[in-house]
Amino acid sequence: MAEPTRFAIIGTGWRSEFFLRIAAAAPERLQAVGVLARSDASAARVAGWNVPIHRSLDDLLAARPDFVIASVSWPAMPGVVTELVERGVRVLAETPPAPDADGLRKLWHDVGASRLVQVAEQYMLMPGHAARLEVVRSGALGTIGGVQVSSTHLYHATSMIRTFLDAGMAEATVSARTFTAPLVDPLTPAGWSDDVSPKDRTTTIATLDFGDGRMGLYDFVDNQWWNPILSRRIVLRGSHGELTDDTVRRFEGTEVITSPITYRRTGVDLNLEGNDVVSAAFEGRIVYRNPWVGTRLSEDDIAVGSLLELTGQWACGDGAEPYPLADACQDHLLGLAIGESARTGADVRVAPDVWS
User: Fold this and answer.
1) Are strands 91-93 and 255-265 parallel, antiparallel or unpaired?
2) What is the gyration radius of the CA atoms in the chain, in angstroms?
3) What is the pTM of this model?
4) Closest Cα partner for 208 from 234, 167, 235, 175?
5) Cα angle vertex 29, ends 293, 287, to 5°?
6) Whether pLDDT at 1 is above 70
7) Sorting pLDDT into bands at 50, 70 and 90, what band is 2?
8) Do 34 and 56 contact (CB within 8 A), yes or no?
9) Helices 325-344, 101-111: inter-axial angle, 10-degree rounding
10) Is the pLDDT of residue 13 over 70?
11) Within the chain, what is the greatest distance between any pair of CA atoms?
């Protein structure tokens, strides 16, 4: 049996607990060997996870993790990542790796050549998106020219758009606008609210033109992640078909074929195998298998767990880079361009940058 992936964490915020929870669910595969907490209050936040808590980086690294997760604030992230790289440590940085464009460029200047930094972007490892990507790569839709994402915000959404379009580091022109309207918004990270009266919420719509007929449409509403009355939507439009959420319509020969992506889920009705998404299939072929069956992880946790394991394989020299710093910088730069265009009302050109 393979040794578990060993990781340490710097930071004790909300995201840090995601990693600790997943490790606790699969201890034979993931092991949190330590957390760096700078104060008594921060140490208290993670004390219940039964993981060693350290007060110095030297002590944390003495636990010999395969890699260290930098789960700190946006302003603190570049400094933490740089210090770890200077010590020769492989890093998984939370998103985004720096707050702004200048910060991204400086971070790349400081650590880009080291190839020691990956970034914790998990969305394309979620079961649904991973299944859709396999359908795209099968050629069922032909050449993808349009991707519409209404699900998550900024750099997460641009990561999805670039991946489905296979756009790489192509130049893009970003045009964004905002619209404000009342919306019931009863659930936030703090929990359910007793105030269910409509409040003004902003919708941001943006187009990302990558040239050669490749276009991304970004559509995000404030708190869309949490608001239970808002749906998620994804459209992948190719030369020979279109995928909308989990339905594919495509042209083959002289016929139009409509096929669903279907999911096998256990724990439904009288099934006693446990509550898991097991696999996804398209036209008689498995296009996704859950590598965490038996853990009962949510779909987002499945993606984070997969990212941790892939990062461990990369750190030990046994796998490819799951999401390199260059990709994270490009996606955040596109996200920043959406924000700038929405504020100014002008198009923003995102040219190839220093990491391209």
Assistant:
1) unpaired
2) 21
3) 0.96
4) 175
5) 40
6) no
7) confident
8) no
9) 170
10) yes
11) 69
**Using an 8 Å Cβ cutoff, are 100 and 155 in contact?**
no
The amino acid at 276: D
- Which residue has 């395969």 as its token pair? 66
Confidence bin at 196 (pLDDT 50/70/90): confident
Q: For residue 92, give both structure tokens.
A: 């998984």
268 token code pair? 């439904």
Q: What gap in Å lies between CA 244 and CA 258, rounded to an integer? A: 11
- Evaluate whether 102 touches 332 at the Cβ level (below 8 Å): no
* HEC secondary structure over the chain: CCCCEEEEEECCCHHHHHHHHHHHHCCCCEEEEEEECCCHHHHHHHHHHCCCEECCHHHHHCCCCCEEEECCCCCCHHHHHHHHHHCCCCEEECCCCCCCHHHHHHHHHHHHHHCCEEECCCHHHCHHHHHHHHHHHCCCCCCEEEEEEECCCHHHHHHHHHHHHCCCCCCEEEEEEEEEEEECCCEECCEECCCCCCEEEEEEEEEEEEECCEEEEEEEECCCCCCCCCCCEEEEEECCEEEECCEEEEEECCEEEEEEEEEEECCCCCCCCCCCEEEEEECCEEEEECCCCCCCCCHHHHHHHHHHHHHHHHHCCCCCCCCEHHHHHHHHHHHHHHHHHHHHCCCEEECCCCCC
| 52, 62 Cβ separation under 8 angstroms | no
CB 216 within 8 A of CB 174: no
Contact 215, 147 (CB under 8 A): yes
Does a cis peptide bond (omega within 30 degrees of 0) precede residue 198? no
What whole-number distance in Å separates Cα of residue 174 and Cα of residue 346? Answer: 9
